[in-house]
Amino acid sequence: MHSGKSIYMKKRIWLGLLTAVAIAACNKKETPAYFLSPTEGSNVSLGNKITLKLDAPAFDSVQFLVDTTYLGSKKDTSSFEVSTGNWPLGVRILTAKVYTGEQAKEVTTNIVLLPSEAPKQLSYSVVNSFPHDTSSFVEGLEYHDGIFYESDGLKGESSLRKVHPQSGKVLKKVDIDARYFAEGITVIGDKIIQLTYQEGVGFVYDKNTLNKLKEFPYTAGREGWGLAFDGQHILNTDGTNNIYFLNKDTYQKEKTLEVYDNKGAVTQLNELEFIDGKIYANVWQTDKIVIINPQTGIVEAEVDLTNLYPGLERIEGDNVLNGIAWDAVGRRLFVTGKRWDKLFEIKLK
Fold it and tell me: From 3.30.70.20, 3.20.20.70, 2.130.10.10, 3.30.70.1450, which CATH number describes the 120-348 domain?
């Protein structure tokens, strides 16, 4: 009798639980489903039209936005078509702000906006080659007034140098404190600006004497990589696809340019040069230079210099192409690499 009663009581408890669950399920209101297309992360070519389509329960009206810019509105779920012609490259957030009475609900998706054309592939010819000091792990290269200015990296080995172009002779060398890994440089008037890799500090030197004038905090990117000067701003990379525009006097970030080609973000941007209104950038761990439109971030052209200095002639390690210098007066383009024994004058075709 005792065991039978226990079984009976257990059955009553289970039946009670099942009934409670069933009642709760019946009383529970399903959350309305909202969906905004295109699918999140879709690649879209710049200039193409996209169709925004909202899948939602009944509402009064909907406003469509890209990032924070108003695109238009509708009062039904019919599709909304918009051109991407003047949008910035990169990830764009698409929002449908759905109004029902006084309540508003936001539904978002995103697209990646890419250039519509592949970069032009440029060829090159070698005009001249010059000796280069193989002890220099080149992080930055500049040509001014008949002299190369060179930033040499690695902790405990970093330096700033003045180099004679034809002979490759180091005319003057300033060793950097062993705490620092020197990175890119640029010349502004009678000053040289130099970054450090992960130490969050930059240096300002007198161009003629290489005497250090001051230090400044570097906060623009995740790390300090390349530098160049476009006549108004200091351009700066940090190994991502970003180019930062720094104030030439305070060295603080004022704006960011995202760099893309037709396949996606072009990352590992490193040493820079500004030539005839375009940004030239080494791509770290490659022998490629990309040529970037500074207004749009579009990679308009690229040149593969793999065969310029074959790998067998290099010292082992990360001794890739990394050094671009422009002689604005003589209109000559120079390139070299980390610990290369040659520096080349080349002409792009």
Answer: 2.130.10.10
